Amino acid sequence: MAQRRLWLCGLALLAAFSSARAQLQIEITGATAQRTPIAIAPFAGEAALSGSITGLVRADLERSGVFRALELPPLNPVPTEATNVSYPEWRSRLADALVVGSVSSRPDGRFEVRFRLHDVVKQANLGGIAYTMTKNQVRATAHRIADFVYEKLTGDRGVFSTRIAYVVKRGNRYELQIADADGAGEETALASFEPIISPAWSPDGRRLAYVSFENKKPVVYVHSLLDGKRNVAANFRGSNSAPAWSPDGKALAVTLSREGGSQIFLVSPDGSGVRRLTTSAAIDTEPRFSPDGKWIYFTSDRGGSPQIYRMASTGGEPQRVTFDGSYNVSPRPSPDGKTLAYITRNSGRFQVALQDLANQQVQIITDSDRDESPSFAPNGRMILFATVLGGRGLLSAVSADGRFKQRLSAATGGDVREPAWGPFFE
Q1: What is the pLDDT of residue 30?
Q2: Per-residue 3-state assignment (H helix, E strand, C coil) for the chain
């Protein structure tokens, strides 16, 4: 037992991430009929790299559900960003857009990657960027290129360079993992023989708040992703759970039972300045701030069944938000504050619903049975959530209109739960 505690402590306080063994594999399970056909020519000179920039950009854009990457015949010569593009030729290949680029070695051992994006239909050069990178930065560079292409062609910011957090359980071991948005580059931030739940990203993406049961009770921690250090944010009598960051990163909304019952409190990330927000005989839990910080959405059974309410972030009388059905939990406001994702019980199935906060219209956007923990991408276009298939926990993602779906599962088995999509990195 002493050895077990020592091993846990060492993992919990690592100054750097350790390598994980459960990269998420992505399977597209549903696609929109209307996807923009895009040609991505092989980047000239990329054979000198350990990975294919072309393949990574292609996979990113396909995974968005917005683009369909065309299969290209062997190109000779391979076009580059310096090539004069024949728009009629690429239009004859049914391309609406074209990406061309090249990779060249530098005297300092690094590489220069150049690319250019063309609108084939409008016969327009949409611009490009040159990046300097090392061999270890192939993935990051490809994600940035895909972000550029996505934004130029859709008007929305791309999320390929963002990261996700999730919990993997294998046997009696729990791992809090951080990975790229495509499930690769995974690293373990915390490993424990006790449950880890409710990871929540700070607005700047440098910290995670989460709940760990390593001390045989739920305690809220704030974990720095830069150096692996962490501090206790809430360890009061009773339960400490459901952390959510304020938009300015200066406060956490948490659920505490220290004064009897589960109620919502505000606390500083360092554990100071505790202030109670709700006062009821009901269970009030799962708080989430609105993007502008004015509201806190939360789940409560004060009306007799679990429903979603909101209250001013400074406190005050709560207002009920959901009215369809007898079970609505886990509120997640969209990044633009216009819609609310949550879990609803629909004919005995627990599914992700999306409510327009202006007109109160509700749309169920998943067709699975046991969904939980929805999390918006920072551009609001996709929602990541946990579900159960064949008795195994995995992650899925669905577009905000419900038309495009994908499934993410751990290659080495285990249950994957508790997803949280990280913010944009500035």
Answers
A1: 66
A2: CHHHHHHHHHHHCCCCCEECCCCEEEEEEECCCCCEEEEECCCECHHHCCCCHHHHHHHHHHHCCCEEECCCCCCCCCCCCCCCCCHHHHHHCCCCEEEEEEEEECCCCCEEEEEEEEECCCCEEEEEEEEEECHHHHHHHHHHHHHHHHHHHHCCCCCCCCEEEEEEEECCEEEEEEEECCCCCCEEEEEECCCEEEEEECCCCCEEEEEECCCCCCEEEEEECCCCCEEEEECCCCCEEEEEECCCCCCEEEEECCCCCCEEEEECCCCCCCEECCCCCCCEEEEEECCCCCEEEEEECCCCCCEEEEEECCCCCCEECCCCCCCEEEEEECCCCCEEEEEEEECCEEEEEEEECCCCCEEECCCCCECEEEEECCCCCEEEEEEEECCEEEEEEEECCCCCEEEEEECCCCEEEEEEECCCCC
